[in-house]
Amino acid sequence: MKFPNKATNHIVNWLEDYLKKSNMDGFLIGVSGGVDSALTSTLCAKTGYPVQCIEMPIHQNKEQISNSSIQINWLESNFSNVTSNKVDLSNMFDKFLNVIPNTSNELKDLGLANTKARLRMLTLYYFSTINRFLVVGTGNKVEDFGIGFFTKYGDGGVDISPIADLLKSEVCHLAAHLNLPNEILSATPTDGLWDDDRNDEDQIGASYKEIEWAMNQNLNEINPRLSDRENEVKNIFTRLNLKNKHKMIPIPICSIPKDFL
After folding, report:
1. For 32-44, what is each residue's pLDDT tens digit?
2. Who's near 203: CB < 8 A, 6+ residues apart?
3. Domain-wise residue ranges, the chain
4. Which pTM was predicted?
5. Residues 35, 33: Cα–Cα separation, whole Å
6. 212-243, pLDDT tens digit by residue?
7. Which of 94, 165, 200, 236 is a good FRET partner for 23, with 20 to 30 A between their CA atoms?
8. Contact 133, 52 (CB under 8 A)
9. Which residues face 52 on adjacent strands?
10. CA distance 69 to 215
């Protein structure tokens, strides 16, 4: 990133302007312990308007909980306009498990992972409503518009997305520029939605650096100079981009001919 100060000021000014026009009172962010939510919450805090960070563990591993706490403590130490709440959703998720039919469907684990993300979205919008705060998205350009690596109506259910035009590498660069905690900067990217230790790269099949490379390639061109791994990454990107296209476009509307009405 050539001009991190300009990028920071641009996003902060955009956030301030949007908040004023929306006639809302502040920003609400789900903090996961990852660099995306850390950067987003910091940028919101720099506006000077109220920012509330919500921790929402669901049987989370200790490292993710620790990183969330580190980020929130750092924010509250550096910005007087930041407050936080912790809402453990583990019992709510367990109750959901108790009322749905038991099944061996191969997509059950994916369905439950998405359910966790959607429970968090419901929680954020509860706090959003009672505080009149905007729910701020933390997705970056690779996730949101490259491979659609988010849950529809889960972490994709937000009011605004201030870092959705930044690649993952740019997110990391800006986070380092703003001196975010080292634990956050060095954390392995993970959505924390699974019961095992799988991270984002495990799920995607490629690193964010590789996906960023693929986003800049001509996907319709056969390049004999590419390595086997580069071709594999291109295929991974193409497959996920097409598969998740429904997340990246507006909800389809069936248009009714006027003479039918």
Report:
1. 889 999 999 999 9
2. 149, 191
3. 4-200
4. 0.93
5. 7
6. 999 999 888 889 999 999 999 999 999 999 99
7. 165
8. yes
9. 28, 83
10. 34
CB 147 within 8 A of CB 244: yes
Rounded-to-integer distance, Cα 42 and Cα 37, Å: 8
Phi-psi region at 14: left, alpha or beta (left = phi > 0; alpha = psi -120 to 50)? alpha
Q: Identify the residue whose tokens are 């099944």.
A: 103
Q: How many residues are present in the chain?
A: 261
User: Among 170, 140, 171, 173, which Cα is nearest to 156's?
Assistant: 140
Give the angle 169-140-180 at the CA atoms, nearest 5°.
60
In SS3 terms, 50-77 reads as: CEEEEECCCCCCHHHHHHHHHHHHHHHH
Any idea which residue has 């993970």 for tokens? 190
Burial of 159 (0-12, 13-18, 19+ CB in 10 A): middle
Tell me: the pLDDT tens digits for 60-93? 877 778 899 999 999 999 999 999 999 999 999 9
CATH no. of 4-200 = 3.40.50.620
